[in-house]
Design a protein that fits this description.
The complex is a heterodimer of chains A (226) and B (288). With 226 residues, chain A is an all-alpha fold. Chain A has 8 helices and no strands. In chain A, helix 2 runs antiparallel to helix 3 and helix 2 crosses helix 5. The radius of gyration of chain A is 19 Å and the shape is globular. In chain B, helix 4 runs antiparallel to helix 5. The two termini of chain B are 39 Å apart. The mean pLDDT of chain B is 90. The interface between A and B is medium-sized, with 22 and 29 residues.
Chain lengths: 226, 288
Amino acid sequence: MFSIVLQDLLVMRKSILLSGIYIAVMLLIFQNIATPGLLAGTAIFTAAMIAVTYMLIGNACAYADKSKVDVVFNSMPVNRIEIVAARYLSVYMFFIIGIVYYLIVTGLINLAQLPVQVYPLSWEGMIGAFFAVTLMNSVYLPVFFKWGYVNSRMINFILFFVFFFGGNILAEAIYKNREYAPVKQLQGFIANQSETLLRAGFILLILVILFVSILISARIYINKEF
Amino acid sequence: MSLILEVRNLKKVFKDFTLEDVSFSLERGYIMGFIGPNGSGKSTTIKMIMNLLKKDSGSISVFGLDHIRHEKEIKNRIGFVYDENYYCEELTISEMKRIITPFYDNWDDSAFEKYLHDFALPARKKIKELSKGMKMKFSLAIALSHHAELLIMDEPTSGLDPVIRSELLEILSDTMQDEEKGVFFSTHITSDLDRTADYITFINNGRIEFTAAKDDILDNFGLVKGARELLNTDFKDHLVGVRENRFGFEGLIKNKEAVKRLFRDSVVIEKPSLEEIMLYFTRRPQNV
C-alpha cells in the first residue's frame, strides 16, 4: 500500500514543489478576502489545504486514469482494498505536505518581516482543515472510483469551489450573525463543552465519514473491471 | 501430470460479443501459444485469468488453486507482460522497481540487475523515454525477477520489429530451460510460435476451435490442392476452409491421413503453417 502512495508522491513531485508557491499566493490573495477575527486563520489555512489536496489528488487521479496503472497493480499480488486505501492515504500525505509548506511559507514571511498578515497554525485550524479535506475527498473518491477521472472531474471541481470558498463564507456568516440567537446558543453549547471532548467528537465524526467513504469506494473498486 | 493453468467452460457476455465454453489446460514446463484474429477473445480470456474482468461462469485454476480465492498467492507466482506498457511512464526504471519490489515475496534484486544488464536497460531512464521494444523488455525483466512459475503474456510481440521479436522469443526459450515454469502466450503473429510453442490453443469469435500439441496440429492438418470438380463430391465435407482459383482450389483439411486414404493421387497435400490454419478457420463461413 505504501508503495502505491510512494508512486503518487514520485509522479506528483513537480506539482508538490509548485504547491508551496500556491500557498504563498493564496496567503496574499486572502489578505483582503478573509473575514477578520479569530476564524480568519482557520479559514485561510483550510482554504490553502483544500487547494493543495485538490490539485495534488486531482492530478494523481488523472495520471492514474490516463496511464491505466490499475491494470498493473491489479495484476500484482495486491488486494483491491489496499489500492483504495492507498488513494485515501495519498490525500493525507498531500495534506501533511501542505501543512509543512504552510509552516515554511508563514515562517519565511515572518522572518523577512513582510507587510503580510500571517496566521499561526492552530489546533482549530488543523482540525477544521482536516475535516474539510476529509469531507471533500470522502465525497470525491467514491465518485472517482466509480466513473474514473474524466467523468468525475466536474464533480471534483464543484466540490473544490464549495469547500474552498465555503470555509470563508461560513466563517463570515458566523461572525456577522454572532448576536443571532441560534448562533449564540451554538456558541454557548460549544463553550460549555470541554475542549478535549469537542476535539474528540469532531475527530470521531471525521473518522466515521472517512470509514463510510472507504467502504463505498472499496465496494465499487472490488467489482470494477479493467 | 501437473497442470499449471486450467480453464474450464469460461463464459463472459458483453453487449456485442460473447466468450463461451472456453476450455484448455497447460502443464508445467511448456509454452502454450494462444492464437486467434484480433477481437477473437484472447485478451478477454487473459483478463479473466488475471481477474481484471469478472467471469460470468466457468472455472479458472492456476497452480491447482482457484484464481479468485487464492488470488494474492497466485499472483505472487505469476509474471505478466501485456501488449502495451501500463507502468508509470513518468518514473525511471529504478523508481518503478522500488515501487514494485515490496509486492512480491520472492523478489530477487540481483536477478533484476542481471536482466537490466542483459537487456541493456538504463536504470535511470524514464519509462516514457524507452522504445517500445525496451518497454517490453522492462516488463519482461519485472516478470522474471520474482521467479514467476507462470508467465502470462498478452500479445507481447505486437508492434515490435522482427529483431526485437526474435530476441524476446529467445529470452522466452532460455527461461523455459527450467522445466518448472510455464508460459501462456497470446499472439496473432503466429510465426512467433513456430519455434517456441509446445501447445496451441486457437480461439475464434469467442470460441475455442482447437487446443492441442503444436506438432500434432501440424501433422494432422493439411493444406490440400486439387481440381475444382472435387468440390462437388464428398471431399467438401473434409474441408475446414477453401479458396478457389482459376486452376482449382486450395483448402485446409483436419485429417490429412483420412483424405490421403480416400482421395489418393487426386489431391496434393502439404504441411500448413499456423498462419494458414488460422486463416482458413477464420474465413471458413465464406468459403466452404
